Amino acid sequence: MKILPxxxxxxxxxxxxxxxxxxxxxxxxxxxxxxxxxxxxxFTEGPALAPDGSIYFTDIPNNNIHRYDxxxxxxxxxxxxxxxxxxxxxxxxxxxxxxxxxxxxxxxxGGPKPDTPWQIDAPPATHQITHYGENRLNSPNDLAFSTDAxxxxxxxxxxxxxxxxxxxxxxxxxxxxxxxxxxxxxVVDNLVRPNGIGISPDFKTLYVADNxxxxxxxxxxxxxxxxxxxxxxxxxxxxxKGPDGMTVDHLGRxxxxxxxxxxxxxSPEGERLGFIETGPQTxxxxxxxxxxxxxxxxxKSLKRVVLNTGK
Length: 311
Hints:
InterPro entries: 6-blade_b-propeller_TolB-like, SGL, SMP-30/CGR1_Lactonase
Shape: globular
Order of helices and strands: EEEEEEEEEEEEEEEEEEEEEEEEEEEEEE
Radius of gyration: 18 Å
Distance between the termini: 34 Å
GO molecular function: hydrolase activity
Number of helices: 0
CATH superfamily: TolB, C-terminal domain
Keywords: Hydrolase, Signal
Protein name: Sugar lactone lactonase YvrE
Low-confidence stretches: 1-22
Strand content: over 45%
Structural class: mainly beta
CATH class: Mainly Beta
CATH architecture: 6 Propeller
Number of strands: 30
Domain SMP-30/Gluconolactonase/LRE-like region: 43-298
């Protein structure tokens, strides 16, 4: 599949608190993270902003991908056969899903339909990336995209039988020059268990959350599918659990989830700016279409909180 041009896609309550930092105005006083979708899910993950403004998210044990509509408040089932989908992302009208159980990155094609709201085509996925060279991927977890490249993390949690790769790494998908095929390149190989992943707004820096070593790493993007030597942006060793999924706002601030605790906000330089307590099983986050409503998968639900991002 050809790489597409970059497109603009950009109960329980959590108590929010500001960390000691120069800028604590991101989190409004008295703001709370409210549950917007709680449908008997077992483990929510992978929130992704769709071009129509809806939020897709996964329920891994139930093998489901759901769609939440902020306009109506309704949640509908997109597929009940997701291959254990975890992280999701919309890129150029396609839905990319890290299908951990399938050990693949699955692609659902689609786009605008005449006289109907925007929607992607019905499952199943039309394309799958399953191998690096001759070896099967470990268990793709999360993904991010830059100009002319898509990056994804490939750790392995739980049962480690059948592993074919020597490490848990970060890979890039780039244009192979062959119609409907990607070139798969390993770009980061120095982490214990890469999980969350994000890209700076200028597309010059790749961020990776190492859940195994409790660190956020930053890597300069040299060209599509190639990064330079990385550095530790922030050491999260003071937290009980490691970092999970992340997102980046329009000013380059990184919002990284800390499993079982909440969302830590970092400046592009790695300074801690604030913390959003969202409760157990906090796994991932994404901004809605307005650029200020943060959607968080936590406590077997989908939550949201409105922040002062400058949008």
